[in-house]
Automatic annotation (TrEMBL):
Keywords: Glycosidase, Hydrolase. This is Hydrolase. One of its GO terms (biological process) is carbohydrate metabolic process. Residues 34-325 form the Glycoside hydrolase family 3 N-terminal domain. GO terms for molecular function: hydrolase activity, hydrolyzing O-glycosyl compounds. The lineage of its organism: Bacteria, Bacillati, Actinomycetota, Actinomycetes, Micromonosporales. Belongs to the glycosyl hydrolase 3 family. The keyword Hydrolase applies. InterPro entries: GH, Glyco_hydro_3_N, Glyco_hydro_3_N_sf, NagZ_Beta-hexosaminidase. SUPFAM superfamilies: (Trans)glycosidases (SSF51445).
Amino acid sequence: MSKHGELPELAAAVLQPGFVGTSAPDWVRRWLGQGLGGVALFARNVESPAQVSALTAQLRAERPDVIVAIDEEAGDVTRFESRLGSSRPGNLALGSIDDPLLTEAVARDLGCELAAAGITLDYAPDADVNNNPDNPVIGVRAFGAEPGLVARHTAAFVRGLQTYGVAGCAKHFPGHGDTSVDSHHDVPLIDRTAEELAACELVPFRAAIAAGAQVVMTGHLLVPAYDPDLPATLSPRILTGLLREELGFGGLIVTDGIEMQGVRRRFGLAGATVRALAAGVDAICVGGDHADEETAIRLRDAIVAAVLSGELPEARLRDAVARVRALGAWTTRTQREAGVVRGPQPLSGIGFDAARRAVRVTRAEGAPELPVTGVPHVVEFAPPRNIAIGEETPWGIGAPLAELLPGTTSVRLGADDLESLSDPASVVLAGAAGRPLVLVVRDVHRHRWIADTLAGVLAARPDAIVVEMGIPVTVLGGIHVATFGATRACGLAAAELIAGANVPEPVAA
């Protein structure tokens, strides 16, 4: 017979809620004493490494094995460095270099920094194969578009990150790359056969599992080859049948944000939570938008009610709790054995070095050489933000270039500034007369208004430098600089190149 009095504690153990504030709220500390298994940190919880260290110490005082998670991809998606931008280049840049030892070293450096701040689970790496360049939410977050490349770098990242007891989390299972829909808003359809999935999407996840990844994150994706009705997060066929039984994954399965519309619209927060656990999920990530005790109570109570009604077998809940506690024990033990020292760590600089290695330059015949002569004018084209990237996270090269070349001017323009104009090029060219012109874009191939404006600008200024900080599908400009990401490290690498440092051998156009 079940000890019903245990059920609230068991239900709390499988939640990874977010919260508001830079110190631990009373309700979170109280819940840790009542079984809460983990918490998820977001940008709103991070001011500095020292502050995060103090926050996690508060949490650990209540439960020493608490799982403290963060969504730190060390690229365009960064929470630990959200206010400055990442000091590392991100996955696509690492994939473009294609040096797995470098990827492992960058991830090891990240793991050391996170562990020192008391973090034990990183919702990274992104193991998606970005084989659809129109993908609105993955893009530069993936290592690339080729399964073998993504697999070797996913494995390298997992190994590096876990050196210091920060659990790696391969996401978004079974693969979010081949879609043009964002699961934050709707349910993407992955319309590929089981054979196609095995040859592409699943390859990096197999590599992550073989590398010892402690965690896999589900994607809110409809994959009819395995389940025509339920998204992966809620599908026993995908989570238990494919991930557990076929791929042999024995670690913890965590959901992508359960409040995302990919699952919430149809089933609601509580319904999606219960269905995910029944399907094989072990931990529920919630709190990006619902970071309050009321939400945690609602989900805990829904889990208890589902066990009492028979909708969620108690044995399945206990199995999930066991995996949560096992991960907590692994992180505690591994960080102790690795000799992790809490508190801020000096920045190693390996991320900036990697970003410099990633830069690729294509120079048209007759175009001027780098570095520029004179003081440049920078125009940054700002497409709609990828929802996974924090609004507060800076990007671009105007600021770092102004530090290197005082007097540099810059302007940032969006679709609202240019799309309705009969001559948008004239707005871009204003202020650039007689000066080097630098045009900064992100995924120009996905935004017609940027492509059309660039055509007019380059007709007047064929010598302009185009810096692509997204996926470099289209090569434009007298000089084309591809950074493979828009992190702080990527921006500095491009700025150094334009100003006269870190000039790689150009590729002929």
